[in-house]
Design goal:
Blueprint (H helix, E strand, L loop, with lengths): L3 H19 L11 E4 L6 H6 L6 E4 L2 E4 L14 E3 L4 E4 L5 E4 L15 E5 L5 E8 L3 E5 L5 E7 L2 E3 L5 E3 L2 E2 L7 E3 L5 E3 L2 E2 L2 E3 L5 E2 L17 E2 L5 E2 L7 E9 L2 E9 L2 E8 L4 E7 L5 E9 L3 E2 L5 E4 L2 E2 L3 E4 L3 E9 L3 E6 L2 E2 L9 H27 L1
Parallel strand pairs: 1-2, 2-5, 3-6, 4-7, 5-8, 6-8, 7-9, 8-10, 9-11, 10-12, 10-13, 11-14, 12-15, 13-16, 14-17, 15-18
Antiparallel strand pairs: 19-20, 21-22, 22-25, 23-24, 24-31, 25-30, 26-32, 27-28, 27-31, 29-30
């Protein structure tokens, strides 16, 4: 008959073998680096070429000339290309300058567009720079970009869910900002003019009202040079990371005039939690966009403000659910409760339970053995 200690050891080994087969490999994340220009690399483009996702490129004070990517082909005047999520931070916005060389274009070459930064990556950040002598100094095609303290002539925003805060756009062709994307925040912008083809953007100088309570202004936004947007948002957009499930990252987006913190998505209870705060005596609101692949409620959503159920307005399309609710401002806890959290727990989450069960069994077996030994001693 097998020794009890050997049987227990065999059980433990078996559990770990099973867990190793069902558990996905854990990949170690590489730490982000800070690359300094010109200390580590003489040009920003070289630093970008040697950077990996998540790295920060710090640019010291000075003037940095943009080189054509291919000197033998003068038509390639797209400047600095960025196709991975990075942060480019200048030391001082007024004294850290990125510039094309003096313009020598003639004849048909005048039709070639000079672009300073051409960004196609999502989750890109740029700040504290002056960009000069370009036709378009910064073009954003990626989503969720962060742009602040940039002094430049012209900027074009094609991406969505971008934040532009505190930028000075003095304009090349009478306009400093071209907006094609939607769900972007434009705050503290000084621009000679704005052209807007996007919608559902937030403008911090919008003064309209929202009488029907959908988080969208009732009247169009009228800005510089009679720029008009039909569907201005009543509050800035805040995006929270809801985690990565089955290799797919999920975000939950809020349009709100409150300060939102402590976001948490709990798939066990099919619940979103956060805290909202604002000036007492004013009304707060949230317009929440929840991906259906993340959380659904089959039309039976519950919203609790300080654990008291609140009325909501719910709309949906093929991919998202949109929930609107309001409250009096003060510090509020908000719980948005669904029914089904689509992401299932990965199989390796049962490993701690197996270990606990094994340790419990060992403890019980040991106590039983000690009891038998003490009975035998009598």
């Amino acid at each position: 008959m097998c020794n009890p200690a050997k049987r227990i050891a065999l059980v433990i080994v078996t559990i770990f073998l099973i867990a190793s087969l069902i558990a996905p490999p854990i990949l170690a994340e590489s730490e982000s680096r800070t690359i300094v220009v010109p200390d580590d690399y003489p040009t920003i483009q070289e630093a970008i070429g040697n950077a990996t996702e998540g790295d920060t490129i710090f640019v010291k004070k000075g003037t940095y000339e943009i080189k054509s990517p291919d000197p033998s082909n003068p038509l390639l005047l797209s400047g600095i290309k960025i196709n991975k999520p990075l942060s480019i931070i200048g030391e001082d916005p007024e004294n850290t300058t990125i510039v094309f060389p003096p313009d020598t274009r003639q004849g048909f070459m005048l039709m070639v567009t000079k672009v300073g930064f051409n960004v196609t990556a999502d989750n890109f950040e740029i700040s504290n720079l002056t960009i000069r002598n370009c036709d378009y100094d910064l073009i954003l095609h990626g989503n969720r970009a962060q742009v602040s303290n940039i002094i430049t002539a012209c900027m074009s925003v094609y991406g969505n869910y971008c934040n532009l805060i505190g930028n000075t756009l003095y304009g090349t062709y009478n306009y400093g900002l071209y907006v094609y994307g939607s769900f972007n925040n434009f705050m503290q912008i000084e621009a000679s003019g704005i052209v807007c083809h996007g919608s559902y953007n937030y403008w911090d100088d919008y003064s309209g009202s929202d009488n029907n309570g959908d988080g969208i202004g009732d009247t169009p936004y009228i800005g510089i040079n009679e720029i008009q947007e039909s569907y201005p948002l009543m509050g800035p957009i805040t995006t929270f990371d809801a985690g990565t499930w089955d290799g797919t990252p999920f975000n939950v987006d809020f349009v709100s005039n409150s300060t939102l913190t402590h976001f948490n998505f709990n798939p066990v209870h099919a619940r979103i939690f956060l805290i909202a705060d604002g000036k007492e005596g004013t009304r707060g609101f949230c317009r929440v966009t929840i991906p259906k692949e993340l959380l659904t409620a089959q039309g039976n959503w519950t919203v609790l403000i300080n654990d008291i159920s609140r009325p909501t307005t719910v709309n949906e399309d093929a991919t998202n659910t949109y929930i609107y609710f309001s409250y009096g401002h003060s510090i509020k806890t908000i719980k948005i409760i669904g029914i089904d959290a689509i992401p299932e727990f990965p199989s390796w989450t049962i490993l701690p339970l197996l270990i606990i069960a094994t340790l419990t069994a060992i403890t019980y077996r040991k106590r039983l053995s000690n009891t038998r030994q003490s009975h035998r001693s009598y």
